[in-house]
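subagent[fold] <- orchestrator: predict structure for attached chain, return tokens only, no commentary.
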Amino acid sequence: MDSESAELKAHQELIEQHRALNELLGHVNEALAERSGTIAEVSGLLARLGDMLVKHFESEEQGGYFAEALTHAPRLIARANALMAQHPKMTRYARELAGAADPDREPDLWWQQTRERFEAFRDELKQHESRENELLQEAYHRDLGSND
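subagent[fold] -> orchestrator:
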């Protein structure tokens, strides 16, 4: 497989990961907003979100499209490193979303706190992903566009 094919495959995988993440974020948001499902089911969705983020962040850090973009624009490495430095905190936060109130003793408080924490996390994740997308666009637009 040539480097262009590998780059395209990595890009497609990144797009699929973003689609799956956004779909899961939507399911969690809906479940928390409507209190649909049980606390155990919603906690399971949140655990799945944490696991998905670990895999997503690993793929960004260990190569693929993100790393390829930086070979085209090494001047962006410091920004990329700052974004990647957020990954452990965000992963930890995602895994702790359901850990506020005791769901057995205070179910109403659990729903409220978990929803508030999830919304703050979702907003932070969307900002993070947006900054990553901007970095990728800048890497490819400026550096590849100038070769036309």
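orchestrator: received. Logging for downstream: Helices lie at 3-34, 39-61, 64-72, 77-85, 87-95, 107-145. The chain has a mean pLDDT of 84.
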